[in-house]
Design a protein that fits this description.
The chain has 293 residues and is of the alpha/beta class. It has 8 helices and 10 strands. The relative contact order is 0.22. Bound molecules: zinc ion (ZN).
Length: 293
C-alpha cells in the first residue's frame, strides 16, 4: 500500500475515461517481435507529469525505508481483490466492447504514478530472468506464444510469485495473421493459447497482444469472441539494452512498456528499471489496474 496514492486520488477524484481506442482497421508498421520494431502509432501525448514523491515497493524512491501498510488504504473497489499487492484505486476504466469488438489499449490515462511492464514471446528462458524479476519484485503481463514456450512451460510459473500473469500472444506467432487469415483462423490461434494457458497456468488470459502489433476489426472481434477483454499494444519499449519512446524521452504515468524474453533480457530490464525509477513510477500489474486479473 502506498499512502501517497490515496493522497493523489483524493485530491483528484477524476473518473475520466480517456483512453486510446483505435477503431480503425489494420495498423501497419508495427513489428513488435522483430529486431527493428517501431513503437505504437496514433498516440495522443498527455500532460500528466509524474508525481515526484511517491515511493514504490519495487524501488522507486523508498523514502524512510518503509512502505506504509494497507491500514491506511482507501476503501477497496470492486477490482481491488486480495490479489492486488499494491493498493490504489484505479482511475481508469477499461473501454467496453462496442459492436462486439474488443477495445485497443496503448496507454492508460491515469494520475497514479504507475507504469506497466509487459514481456512477450518466451523464446529465451534463463534463470537470470527469474532472479532479476524476483529481486526487483516486478509483476508483469507475460504475453506468451504457445509454440515458443511449449518446450518448457513450467519456466514461466516462476514469475507468478511476483504477481505476473500469462496473457495471450497466440499459438503460432504469425506476424501476418491480420493480412493472411480470416476471422476463424485468427480465432482458432487465439483459442488454442487460451486453452494452453488454462492447462499450464490455471487461468484463461484476458488480454491479447497481436504478433507484430498489427490488428484489425476482424481481430478485435476474434479477441472478444475468444473471451478476452482487450488488445494491448504499447507506448515504450525496452529493447537492445535501452528505452525507446513513442512520445517524449522518459516514461510517463500509465505507460505500457514492451519487452521480450530475449538474450539481452538483463540489459533491457536494467534500462527499464533506470527509466521507471528516474520517472518516480511504480511497476504495477496491468490486469490489476484494469480489473481483469
Ligand atoms: Zn511477439
Amino acid at each position: 500500500m502506498l499512502g501517497d496514492h490515496s493522497a493523489v486520488l483524493s485530491s483528484a477524484p477524476s473518473r475520466r475515461a480517456v483512453f486510446s481506442v483505435v477503431g480503425a482497421s489494420v495498423v501497419a508498421g508495427l513489428t513488435a517481435c522483430s529486431s527493428s520494431e517501431t513503437s505504437t502509432p496514433v498516440q495522443t501525448p498527455t500532460g500528466a507529469g509524474a508525481s515526484p514523491d511517491v515511493p514504490g515497493p519495487n524501488g522507486a524512491l523508498a523514502v524512510g525505508g518503509e512502505v506504509p501498510t494497507s491500514s491506511a488504504s482507501p476503501t477497496p473497489t470492486a477490482t481491488a481483490t486480495k490479489r492486488i499487492r499494491r493498493t490504489f484505486i484505479p482511475d481508469y476504466q477499461l473501454p467496453p466492447m462496442v459492436g462486439g469488438l474488443a477495445p485497443v489499449i496503448t496507454k492508460i490515462e491515469t494520475k497514479h504514478p504507475v507504469v506497466f511492464l509487459t514481456i512477450d514471446d518466451g523464446n529465451i528462458k534463463t534463470p537470470e530472468s527469474i532472479k532479476l524479476m524476483a529481486e526487483y519484485d516486478y509483476p508483469a503481463s507475460l504475453f506468451l506464444t504457445k509454440d515458443t514456450v511449449a518446450d518448457n512451460p513450467a519456466f514461466f510459473t516462476a514469475f507468478k510469485a511476483q504477481g505476473s500473469l500469462v496473457e495471450n500472444h497466440t499459438v503460432t506467432h504469425n506476424i501476418n495473421m491480420v493480412r493472411q487469415w480470416g476471422y476463424q483462423q485468427q480465432l482458432n490461434d487465439m483459442v488454442g493459447m487460451q486453452e494452453y494457458s488454462f492447462q499450464h497456468y490455471g487461468r484463461r488470459p484476458t488480454l491479447f497482444r497481436p504478433p507484430g502489433g498489427a490488428y484489425s476489426n476482424v481481430m478485435r472481434q476474434a479477441v472478444a469472441d475468444a473471451g478476452m477483454k482487450a488488445i494491448v499494444t504499447w507506448e515504450a519499449k525496452a529493447n537492445a539494452g535501452k528505452m525507446d519512446y513513442q512520445v517524449g524521452n522518459s516514461l510517463r504515468p500509465g505507460d505500457i512498456v514492451l519487452m521480450h524474453f530475449r538474450a539481452e533480457f538483463a540489459a533491457d530490464l536494467a534500462a527499464f528499471r533506470a527509466a521507471h525509477l528516474a520517472a518516480g513510477l511504480e511497476v504495477v500489474l496491468l490486469e490489476d489496474f484494469l480489473g481483469v486479473a
